[in-house]
């Protein structure tokens, strides 16, 4: 195997940026402070249009500003007298009706960035809009509380900033068997043997080799544990469905991972939005329903919380290409079995009181969502991870 192929397929490209604590193996059970509770984070990358996701179907401003792309009142999946789901979200409406979904409106942050890259970094690091951090909030969580790289897994081939800490990273893999096999190739073992033959102490081991050792141990643990889980559920045969199926196998096998991260792209709908968003929301909702039902049937949904966010919303007014441009505040979905506030957590967006860019104003800081999850769900000190001292929410 070529070195570049090994690095890409083994997800070590992300590990080159960390200096982890040296450990030999991960076979032991890891309970830590967070017990068996798990968090699944889903990002709708590209800036999903929240107004056409949760539709204010009685709001005249909505229809005046979106004469060609607004969802018709006849097509809205109504849940109360003013709001309803996009017609492609019927599976999410079923979760809503079961009390498994909480919708938080107007989520954002001060002085919002409308750059995909910058706003994603802000959401991943939990920083202020003018503060540039090099570690993610999940990365800081695992190195301060969980202490093991496999405590956070991204279902992808490379690791995002969210899962990178200051001295320890999470693990990225789409296929635990492939990751495990890659960690046991002759090329990889020869690299480790070369380092072992130098007889250096743990303290003097190069960070690349420490990363390789940790990745190999993590890969063995992830593969051997996750292969014990099976599912009878038929997941959609698309990349997002496959990612959630892998996540479910990790959770249902009892893998001691605290946080999982999955991203689904394509939501940058500047032109011809209606068809594109309808297709994307259909993919999202169908896979999510199978995933939630799979966990529920296996008895693991009780201890799993699922957060869906997008890096920003879209402009209130449609553009000339029958799409929407980058906006600010957006809605966030929280799925769980024992939510304190199922349904709509707060008031819908105000379409007449916009910011100076004619975007929706935020009323809920996204870091208050993170702080609530860390403190109330994962039961750790959120201030040491977020440096955030704002309000806590009551959705869990």
From TrEMBL:
PANTHER family the UniProt entry points to: BLL7424 PROTEIN, DUF1501 DOMAIN-CONTAINING PROTEIN
InterPro entries: DUF1501 (IPR010869)
Protein name per the record: DUF1501 domain-containing protein
Source taxon at top rank: Bacteria
Classification of source organism: Bacteria, Pseudomonadati, Bacteroidota, Flavobacteriia, Flavobacteriales
């Amino acid at each position: 195997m070529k070195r570049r192929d090994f690095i890409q397929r083994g997800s070590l490209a992300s590990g080159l940026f960390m200096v982890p604590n040296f450990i030999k193996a991960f076979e032991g059970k890891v309970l830590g402070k967070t017990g068996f509770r798990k968090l699944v984070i889903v990002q709708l990358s590209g800036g999903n249009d929240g107004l056409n996701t949760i539709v204010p179907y009685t709001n005249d401003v909505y229809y005046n500003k979106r004469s060609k792309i607004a969802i018709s009142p006849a097509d809205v999946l109504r849940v109360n007298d003013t709001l309803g789901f996009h017609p492609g979200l019927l599976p999410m409406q079923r979760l809503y009706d079961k009390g498994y979904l909480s919708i938080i409106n107007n989520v954002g942050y001060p002085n919002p960035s409308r750059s995909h890259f910058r706003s994603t970094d802000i959401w991943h690091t939990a920083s202020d809009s003018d503060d540039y951090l090099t570690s993610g909030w999940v990365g800081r969580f695992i190195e301060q509380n969980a202490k093991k790289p496999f405590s956070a897994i991204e279902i992808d081939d490379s690791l995002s900033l969210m899962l990178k800490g200051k001295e320890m990273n999470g693990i990225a893999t789409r296929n635990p068997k492939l990751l495990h096999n890659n960690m046991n190739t002759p090329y990889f073992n020869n690299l480790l043997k070369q380092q072992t033959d130098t007889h250096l102490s743990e303290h003097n081991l190069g960070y690349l080799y420490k990363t390789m050792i940790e990745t190999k141990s993590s890969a063995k643990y992830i593969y051997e544990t996750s292969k014990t889980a099976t599912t009878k559920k038929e997941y959609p045969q698309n990349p997002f469905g496959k990612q959630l199926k892998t996540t479910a196998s990790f959770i249902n096998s009892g893998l001691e991972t605290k946080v999982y991260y999955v991203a689904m792209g394509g939501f940058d709908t500047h032109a011809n939005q209606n068809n594109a968003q309808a297709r994307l929301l259909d993919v999202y909702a169908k896979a999510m329903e199978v995933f939630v039902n799979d966990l529920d049937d296996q008895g693991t949904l009780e201890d799993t919380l699922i957060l869906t966010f997008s890096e920003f919303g879209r402009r209130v007014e449609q553009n000339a290409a029958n799409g929407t441009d980058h906006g600010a505040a957006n809605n966030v979905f929280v799925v769980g079995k024992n939510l304190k506030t199922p349904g709509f957590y707060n008031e819908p967006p105000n379409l007449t009181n916009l910011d100076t860019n004619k975007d929706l104003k935020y009323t809920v800081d996204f870091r208050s969502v993170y702080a609530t999850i860390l403190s109330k769900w994962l039961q750790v000190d959120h201030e040491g991870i977020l440096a955030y001292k704002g309000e806590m929410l009551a959705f869990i």
